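Q: Protein A?
A:
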Amino acid sequence: MNEIIWMVYITTGFFIIFPLLQIGLFKVDKKYKSFLYVTISLFIWWIVDFLRLVSTNPTLIYYLSLLVYPIVYLVVFTLFEASIRYLRKPLNKYIILGLVAFFFVNLFISMTNNLHFLVLDFPLSDSVTYEAFKDVSLGPFFAIHMGVTYILLLGSVASLIYKLLIRLKETGDAIPLILIVLSVIFGFFFNILQVFFFTFDIDPTMVAATAFLSVLYYVFYMRDLRLILAVDRNNFLISNLRERYVIVNEKGIVIDASKEFISMTGIQIDEDITYDDLIVKLQEKAILFENADDVKYDFEQNKLYLKTYHKDIRLPVYKKRGSFHLFHDETSNLKYINDMNYVKTHDLMTRLFNRNYIEDIRDGLDQTEHIYHIIMFDLDGLKLFNDILGHEKGDDLLIRFSNQLLTVTNEGGIVAIRLGGDEFVILAINKTDDRVNDIVENLRLINEELGFIDTIHYSYAISNNEGKETMGEVLAEADQNMYKMKQNKSNYKEVLKLALNKIAAK
């Protein structure tokens, strides 16, 4: 053979062997697994063709030349099976068994051709050379071999092209379809030329099959982030990244997730689960946010708090893109912040909001268009409890009253606040006058059933923001009215003092 033929042959061998050197890629997704067998079959074809080209032994040349036909069938059969699996279509086991059986029939008839000439009308002799096979007559089984092979080949190619056409409509991505169609045209042209018109020094069908398979693998690589990540050395960094990440392809399908993500969330990545479906599952276990300011005030102790980041991943020569999503576990940080905010805005002894909370919401209330009411309370006799029975009993009085306030404010828009000392307020936003009066009445009923010492006495006043510009004005009005009520209860302190002294004397 001349140098050009050898160059073509060596180049063909390189493109066949290269995928076998990247054998791990066939394990990236089970839909690629069967393509490994296609490549192995094609490699066997290349080896057999090489041996018959360089051999000078007539017997070896004869049987290697006949062996090519079952091997060609094997390549096409494995391509058909791999295509079906790639398209995730069901495989009928009886059809597969029949096709496997045909391979062995093909192999047997080819290897015994010298006895019956069913494949080629060409006997074994000492004059057999590679060139002698260029002009031999074809036997009847050769037609059967060609028919079955072409049916499988057309089925494989048609199903792959149909898949690419659907993808073209969905994504507008024409490059894979163009590459595959051109390689198919190239292959069929030279195959028909080889079989019916002209015999080349090197089998063009093998070259065409190699070209088609190489283009197909390139399309797979160009359009599958799993393969890109498996080939790219940055995959090492991703694999060792101590973060929770998810990788999504251009169709929104989750194709990979870190072990840390799965371990943290307990969510298994099912086949073809979309990122949207994953988020729905994740939101059952976690609060997702991009900015800490977006997190609502109430901290949910039984959920994770995950800050999300995402980065687009561009695919080569492609309009669409995949995406890389990171999930930082901020649960402990937000819990710490929540605890700090709780300490800042709550009275730790009574568990009510404190004056800082009022200051935090003051500007918002000054600008609101909603009507809000403030009920201001001042406990009667707290100093007597502290002086006569001790501060522990005084604290107990504050806690009992706070619990009563929590009981009557257990709905949205109503909060109880301790301003300090023996002063409390209830803030009711967007509530009617009747609802506010019900709060006061419910508090009275709670104390009505208690004994004199256990009954909590207090002065109170109600004010709202109608006709007032600031919350300070609302608080001032309530404070003045409460002071008037307190002045009318001077006799209560004398009675309480006598009762407490009796308790202290026991």
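Q: Protein B?
A:
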Amino acid sequence: MVDNDAADFESGYVTSDVDGNRFVDGSDAAIVDNNAFNFVSVAKP
């Protein structure tokens, strides 16, 4: 969702604006990618 909004240069109050600067850009994509890369899961029997 962030990648699509960044490609469309979305601005304003949108959920994909992760850093809150009212623009969806590469910095939002970097934050989302970093969080996805560090995703931790737990497997329980």
